[in-house]
Amino acid sequence: MITVGCAGFPVPATRYFREFMFVEVQETHVSLPGPGTIRRWRREAPVGFRFALLGPREIGQEGFRDGKVIETALKSIEAVADELEAKSAVFVGPPEFTPTRANKTILRDFLVNVKKRFERVVFEPPPGWDPDECDELTQEVGALAARDPLNAGLSRLKVAYYRLHGPAGHKSRYEDPAIERLAEIARGAKHDDATYVFTNVDMFADAKRFKKAMKL
Question: How many CA within 13 A on the CB side of residue 205?
Answer without folding.
Answer: 8
